[in-house]
């Protein structure tokens, strides 16, 4: 659905991370939300109450629709976190878990 | 639906469309009354949109055992009430009664709670109800994630909670289905008792009714004297913090902290005398957050998504007022600060009595006459 603009397709160093355990690639400087979209993941979570699918929308920290689990911590705003080498990003099914 | 009575467009005008007014309107309409609800608008001071949603019995009624019994009755009837609402409207108000805890952070605190429960149950005319005083080991079995400072707590199996915003919405849907005429932006300016009925001058014209029920919360203090009643209420501010929605971990409500049916954790129970100022006080928010984290340290990992301050409707002794006017018969005042807990009673027990026009002896205790004590010289 999304493609990088040609002039920045090669910008930034390649980054390796995982989406639900599957290897994925991004560019340094990408937000997690942008990296998910670039990898074809348009639905990154299901809502806690109705279970409806949601994906990154505003990309600027306002809508809270890009919530994902990053390195084990749930409800992170994907658009407000830069993707990093080795990062484990998981789509979130409903409510976040809190470790007891 | 009954025909409009002589001298009045409605059998009953309920002043106030919050939890108290809408529960009464629901019960009155089910009793066959033609009802209007005269409400303010969106900017009304409305504790029904800011409360903590407990249906709570534990500890209530020290100084008025009849209030303990009244709260207990509502707890017993709440399940059936929620079921009636669900059958009528299709909405589940998420009422659960798993029993509630009051965790204590010091031995003194635990001891004073235990003493208060004992004094409560030693009152004459008190109908005893089950409760337990638990030490840390016993509490850990029920709430394994309490912090190291928690020394124990009290428990009462009658305590529960619901989704109170949904309750308000459901009651409004319910009164609509029952043919109640809900009128927002009808702030009542004046009430005249005339020809055995009532004329209510409102911001949007006159409304006539055979009976009038003042369920206007904070505005009761202004309205009650218009019909020979009194409702000496004052606002008491409380702060609430809500976290992001998380997987269920807290299966019992506590007096400070509860997890909602949808997963958010509510943190509350502050008490401030600040008039009608609902400005959020960061010092108070941090204090209740810090206490909640001492009780349940894992809350420290959660993000806060909302916080607000709301105003309890408090009488001088904290107990409700239920009374019919002696000088303007047919005018009733109903005011309390536990509009969620007592919703079942208001809908199922009180409303039919108001419909019949007589509260009976049981409610003598709740008359505002208890405040009319001459000052000692």
Automatic annotation (TrEMBL), chain A:
Pfam families the UniProt entry points to: Fer2_4
Keywords from the named record: Oxidoreductase
InterPro entries given in the database record: 2Fe-2S-bd_N, 2Fe-2S_ferredoxin-like_sf
Record flagged with keyword Oxidoreductase: yes
Superkingdom of the source species: Bacteria
Protein name (Swiss-Prot/TrEMBL): Molibdopterin-dependent oxidoreductase YjgC
Highest classification ranks of the organism: Bacteria, Pseudomonadati, Pseudomonadota, Alphaproteobacteria, Rhodospirillales
From TrEMBL, chain B:
FAD dependent oxidoreductase domain residues: 11-351
Keyword entries, A-Z: Oxidoreductase
Keyword Oxidoreductase: yes
Gene3D superfamilies associated with the record: D-Amino Acid Oxidase, subunit A, domain 2 (3.30.9.10), FAD/NAD(P)-binding domain (3.50.50.60)
Superkingdom of this protein's organism: Bacteria
InterPro entries the record matches: FAD-dep_OxRdtase, FAD/NAD-bd_sf
One Pfam family this sequence matches: DAO
The keyword Oxidoreductase belongs to this UniProt entry's keyword annotation: yes
PANTHER family, alphabetized: FAD-DEPENDENT OXIDOREDUCTASE DOMAIN-CONTAINING PROTEIN 1, SARCOSINE DEHYDROGENASE-RELATED
This protein's name: Glycine/D-amino acid oxidase-like deaminating enzyme
The species this protein was found in: Azospirillum picis
